[in-house]
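Mods, move this if it's the wrong board.
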Amino acid sequence: MKFEEWDPLYTEILSYFSFSRADDERSAKLLASLVEQDALLEAKRLIKTREQIVVCGNAPCLQDELHALELSDSSREKLILIAADGASLVLHRECLTPDIIVTDLDGIYDAREIIYSMNRNGTILVIHAHGDNTHFIQSFVPFCAGPVICTTQAEPFSHVYNFGGFSDGDRAVFFAHALGAMKVTLCGFDLDDEKVDPIKRGKLLWARRLLGMLGYSI
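Not the wrong board. Structure tokens:
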């Protein structure tokens, strides 16, 4: 999605949640200053060489849906696992290592040593900057020793990208499509979860709308 197409949606999101564009932009500049290397080409090569992409959301149904996929060593070699934020820790408990983690850091920060280990061993971190996570960026990003891609929900610049999407789950789906994925399977997405707080509920409503733009009906 080109930023010219995204910007009207982004403006609407800012208004809906009373977020600040300036704060988002400051956070993106901070992230850019802490990341020198860009793993985008690596992620593109990875996605284009596999038959199937599975994007894992962090809904409570994720574990059961992972079991239903019946992933074996042979099938695992044919697909890419992309985890949205805390879904990476569910995969870890299931002895599955995500190839890519799309995160704004809040769901993985308390388990950062696990994430650092994954990153050192090749898991690509797609780290997202927004106005509310500068403290996570400052204390998490400098210790990443593996491949990192920077993203923003504001206007992209330099090596900070905007692929579309808002929350970690739908951003992961937009990311996969933007990098050339032909087939994307969603796992662990529950956009009707009634047990979430009002802010999260609003994010789920936006996730449904945005995923609908890619042809998903959840």
